[in-house]
Every structure is written in structure tokens, then in C-alpha cells.
């Protein structure tokens, strides 16, 4: 394969993470995730909605932690040993919210996809924190509405 063709393919390819959740998986561009870390028990705050799990300290920064499932009105994931936290980069107001964490049900998987490998999953219903349900290389996934999630977190802080 020529170098020019390889460069064209690489330019169109998107590095994504498939993040396992309870009953579904999220798909996010790799660059929107700062780090995947082992689960840290957050400092709970009883005055917040049930989807807001509290905050944990990461790299000397207090990071709010949310349950994606609870934000969608679904039952939260389990307490399994494979839980992780996906630390997302702040997109809405990175001065007030530089990072936000989402509990995952396992270890995310890196996937490189081409635009023609993503299609809408028309039959799926979506929750308030979901932009779209999609098929990614033959696998069902959900594109989360990160702006919505982070705006909701800012609203309760």
C-alpha cells in the first residue's frame, strides 16, 4: 500500500473507545477521554440527584462522578470488580468543570473505525443523555450527549 493511500485512510479513521455500561456500550472519540482509572469510591452528597454519585480526587482535582444509566432513568450498574471510571475532558465549561467521571462496567476497548462503519440504529429508543443509538462495525452502541451530561453536572454543583 502506498504511503499516500495509508495517509488518506489514517485521516478518515477515528480512534474511539467502546465503553461497557449496564446493558449497553458507549462509543466516544478517544480524545474526549482523559483516562480510564480503577473505580474510586466518591465522597457522596445527599442533596444531589441520584445520578450524581459524588466527587473523587484525581490528579489533585475534585472530579464529579455520575451514573450514566441513572441519568437516563435506568437502573444503575452493578458493584462488580471490573468497574472503572472514564474521566472525560471538560467540554461545556472547562474552567468550572475540567473533568467529569462516568462509571463503567468494565474495561473499555479501543476501536479504530471508518465513517462507513457507523450507521444509525433506528429502532432504538434513546435516553436524555444519549445523542443517538448506532451500529459500529456491527456492534450496538450509544453516542452519549457529553454536553448534556456535563451541563447537568454544572447545574447541581
TrEMBL record:
Domain (CheW-like) ranges: 13-155
GO BP annotations, alphabetical order: chemotaxis; signal transduction
Tree of life domain: Bacteria
Gene3D superfamilies listed in its UniProt record: CheA-289, Domain 4, SH3 Domains
Protein name: Chemotaxis protein CheW
